[in-house]
């Protein structure tokens, strides 16, 4: 029944937003982690979302793919931000390289904050959606009473 | 005289089924609100209604009905492929987005809430049908 698959859909959404919140937390926590070379510097991490399709369940489906409504969202993976890390001249810093530079991560704190709010709101929406589905199912159980 | 469930319940059963399927489609939109390239979808109520009406019309061959060319073939009645695959359409976006995602979270939320209310309404109507049948059986 489709109402029960709604739980899976909302659950996948909550789980995906949870991964997003985790990456935001990791980025924010490491926003000031300095290092003495570009390679060792922390890079901002971002999750990549993709729509889950029905045929992932295996077996030939009676529906052709254009008729499929999809069964939620999945996290394809987590990619590192390829933008340049910040190079600052701080010769007195204990981590400074021989030229006096230290390297700060390419974390944009403002962007991360906006991402956090967006993820949190999306999580709430998914949780509320699950709640509504629960109410609908409970109502159906009282049919004929 | 016999009591036929199909006649007694009318379209409410299918309506309830439609509402639960639409909840799934809308829920999927909301879950994919941040997925790049995802296209929002919705079920067209009037298309589904037309399909159901054509199916339930007397003598009308169902769209999905199997053809029986031999008397020993079993008619696949009630072979319902789910509510209108044809009715599952893509939403027209109100404004373009950089990541090609056409989900407008507020619109989807509003539709989801409306759908849940309509589900309750369909349920109430179906429930009253059952109550009517019960009181007819009791004869009180």
Task: Present the secondary structure layout.
The complex is a heterodimer of chains A (145) and B (140).
Chain A: H1 2-29, E1 45-51, E2 73-80, E3 86-89, E4 101-104, H2 109-141
Antiparallel strand pairs in A: 1-2, 3-4
Helix pairs in contact in A: 1-2
Chain B: H1 5-9, H2 12-31, E1 41-43, H3 45-56, E2 88-90, H4 105-138
Antiparallel strand pairs in B: 1-2
Helix pairs in contact in B: 2-4
- What integer is the average pLDDT of chain A? 87
Give the N-to-C terminal Cα separation of chain A. Answer: 21 Å
- The parts of chain A where pLDDT drops under 50 for at least 5 residues are 56-66
Helix and strand succession of chain A? HEEEEH
**DSSP strand tally of chain A:** 4
The helix/strand class of chain A is alpha+beta
The strand order across the widest sheet of chain B is 1-2
The assembly state of the depicted protein chains is heterodimer
Structure description:
The complex is a heterodimer of chains A (145) and B (140). With 145 residues, chain A is of the alpha+beta class. Chain A is built from two helices and four strands, in the order αββββα. Chain A has helices at residues 2-29, 109-141; strands at 45-51, 73-80, 86-89, 101-104. The model of chain A is unreliable at 56-66 (pLDDT under 50). Chain B is mainly alpha-helical and 140 residues long. In chain B, α2 (12-31) packs antiparallel against α4. A two-stranded antiparallel ribbon of chain B has the order 1-2. The model of chain B is unreliable at 78-84 (pLDDT under 50). Chain B has helices at residues 5-9, 12-31, 45-56, 105-138; strands spanning 41-43, 88-90. The chains are: A alpha+beta (145), B mainly alpha (140). At the A-B interface, α1, β1 and α2 of A face α2 and α4 of B.
Keywords summarizing the entry:
heterodimer, A: 145 residues, alpha+beta, two-stranded antiparallel ribbon, 2 helices, 42% helix, 16% strand, elongated, B: 140 residues, mainly alpha, 51% helix, flat
């Amino acid at each position: 029944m489709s109402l029960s698959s709604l739980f899976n859909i909302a659950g996948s959404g909550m789980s995906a937003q949870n991964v997003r919140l985790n990456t935001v937390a990791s980025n924010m926590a490491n926003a000031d982690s300095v290092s003495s070379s570009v390679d060792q510097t922390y890079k901002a991490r971002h999750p990549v979302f993709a729509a889950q399709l029905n045929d992932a369940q295996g077996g030939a489906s009676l529906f052709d793919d254009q008729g499929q409504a999809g069964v939620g969202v999945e996290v394809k993976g987590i990619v590192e931000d390829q933008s340049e890390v910040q190079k600052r001249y701080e010769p007195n810093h204990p981590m400074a390289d021989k030229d006096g530079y230290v390297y700060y991560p390419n974390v944009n704190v403002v962007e991360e904050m906006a991402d956090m709010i967006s993820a949190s709101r999306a999580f709430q929406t998914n949780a509320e959606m699950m709640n509504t589905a629960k109410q609908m199912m409970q109502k159906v159980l009282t049919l004929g009473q | 005289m016999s009591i036929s469930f199909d006649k007694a319940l009318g379209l409410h059963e299918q309506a309830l089924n439609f509402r639960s399927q639409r909840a799934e489609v809308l829920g999927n939109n909301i879950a994919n609100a941040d997925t790049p390239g995802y296209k929002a979808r919705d079920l067209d109520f009037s298309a589904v209604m037309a399909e159901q009406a054509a199916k339930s019309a007397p003598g009308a061959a169902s769209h999905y009905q199997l053809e029986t060319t031999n008397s020993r073939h079993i008619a696949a009645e009630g072979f319902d492929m789910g509510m209108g695959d044809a009715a599952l359409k893509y939403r027209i976006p109100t404004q373009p987005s950089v990541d090609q995602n056409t989900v407008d979270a507020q619109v989807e939320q509003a539709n989801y809430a409306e759908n849940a209310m309509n589900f309750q309404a369909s349920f109430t109507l179906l429930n009253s049908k059952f109550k009517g049948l019960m009181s007819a059986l009791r004869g009180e």
